[in-house]
Structure formats: C-alpha cells, structure tokens
UniProtKB/TrEMBL annotation:
Organism: Granulosicoccus antarcticus IMCC3135
Cellular compartments annotated: Cytoplasm
InterPro entries documented for this protein: CblAdoTrfase_CobA (IPR003724), Co_AT_N_dom (IPR025826), P-loop_NTPase (IPR027417)
Gene: btuR
Basic and acidic residues bias (residue ranges): 11-20
Name of this protein: Corrinoid adenosyltransferase
Length: 210
C-alpha cells in the first residue's frame, strides 16, 4: 500500500513538472514578445476597495528603484492617511513630490467656484509633473471625479497626458472613470465591490482604510 502511494506521488510529481514546463514555455514566449519600452497610463477604477492603496503601492515600488515620483491627490479628506503621513516622513530620503488639493472637496458642491479653483490649482501641480523629464511616475489620485464633475477640462487633461515624456508612467485612480480615460489607458484594472466590511458594520480602521 505504502509503495503504491509513493509511486502515485512520483507520477503526480512528474505530471506537475511537465505541466510547469509547458506553462514556462508559454510565459517565456509572452516575455519574448513584449519588447517595447515606454511609460504607460494605468487606470485603476471600479467600486471596490484598493484603488488608492494600489497607486501608492506602485509609488513605493518605484521609489525602491530610486525613481523620481510625483503624487497629486485631487480629493483630500479631512482625515490624515497612513500612506501620506509615511510619504511625508520619507520626504528627505525618497525622491518624491507630493501635492494635495487645497480645500476639502465638497461632495454636495455647495461652492462650485471654490472647488473649481482648488481643482485648477491641483492640476497645475499635475501639469508640471507631467512636463518634467526627470519624473518617472506620476500618481493622480481620484482624478476621475474632477472629470466626471467637469472641474477640469477633459481635452486639456488628455492632451497633457499624451504630451508627457516618453518614459513617464501615469496612474489615475478613482471611481466612475469617463470613457475617454479608458481610451487613453494602456492598463485598466476595474476593482469590483464583492464585499466590504463597512457594509457589515465594521468601522473604518487606521492602517487599513486610511
Ligand atoms: P483604498 O484607499 O482603501 O485603496 P479606494 O481608493 O479603492 O480605497 P475610495 O473610493 O477612494 O476607495 O474610498 C476610500 C475609502 O472608502 C477607504 O476607506 C475604503 O476602505 C472605503 N471604501 C472603498 N471601497 C468601499 C466600498 N465598496 N464600500 C465601503 N467603503 C469602501
Ligand atoms: Mg481612493
């Protein structure tokens, strides 16, 4: 019995090894085919949790390679977040510039003029980063809302992104991305909202939600 079992195991191991070899051949062929080197536009959208954290995760990944990064947050909540606090603590060490929209964006847009001015000011920082040859990665966190609510001009945003330095990558996050953003993006991840603990009554937690 024991002998039979170990033979089966050997057979399984052999099968596994063959399957992995076939998989590796497919992966290697894919790697071989992808040879273009240029910056890309990444759009992280959808209603699920993980858009801003993904954007910041990529910034930290790039910083680990010593890349110059820029971050503009288009909606600044009233609560401070761990990712921004940490970024600010690293400022002396890390090659990163950070800007947040000056005022708390009002969802009910009681004061459209004030929000528009804040959006324009934040966009001026984004534009500068998008024109800077030395910046390799630009995160435009929650930019989607500025376009959805027309605080920024779509054509201006698109043409500035298109005219950026060739090697520069741009990450755009936020829900409800307009079709034009889907169009300009090279990589789109749409995060679905399958479950969120908040809906089961779990309070937002520091280090997890902000
Ligand atoms: P995160 O910052 O955690 O990556 P996000 O950027 O994908 O989240 P936003 O739409 O910007 O999500 O909302 C930010 C806040 O709302 C976070 O505290 C997050 O936990 C919470 N949140 C995100 N998605 C949901 C959801 N589907 N239901 C309830 N709360 C959510
Ligand atoms: Mg977010």
């Amino acid at each position: 019995m024991r002998q039979w079992e170990s033979e089966m195991e050997e057979q399984d191991k052999q099968k596994h090894s063959e399957r992995m070899q076939r998989k590796k051949a497919v992966v290697d062929a894919g790697i071989e085919k992808a040879q273009i080197e240029r910056g890309i536009v990444i759009l992280i959208t959808g209603n699920g949790k993980g858009k801003t954290t993904s954007g910041f995760g990529t910034v930290y990944r790039a910083l680990g390679h010593g890349h110059q990064c820029g971050v503009v947050q288009f909606i600044k909540g009233t609560q401070s977040t761990g990712e921004v606090t940490f970024l600010q603590q690293c400022m002396g060490l890390a090659t990163v510039q950070y800007h947040a929209m000056a005022t708390g964006f009002t969802w009910n847009t009681q004061n459209w003029d004030a929000d528009k001015a804040a959006a324009d000011e934040a966009w001026s920082h984004a534009r500068r980063l998008l024109q800077d040859e030395s910046v390799q990665l630009v995160l435009l966190d929650e930019l989607t809302y500025m376009l959805k609510y027309k605080f920024l001009d779509m054509e201006d945003v698109l043409s500035t992104i298109r005219a950026r330095p060739e090697g520069q990558t741009v990450i755009i996050t936020g829900r409800a991305a307009r079709p034009e953003l889907h169009e300009i993006a090279d990589t789109i991840s749409e995060i679905a909202d399958r479950k969120h603990a908040y809906k089961a009554g779990v309070k937002a937690q520091p280090g997890i939600d902000f």
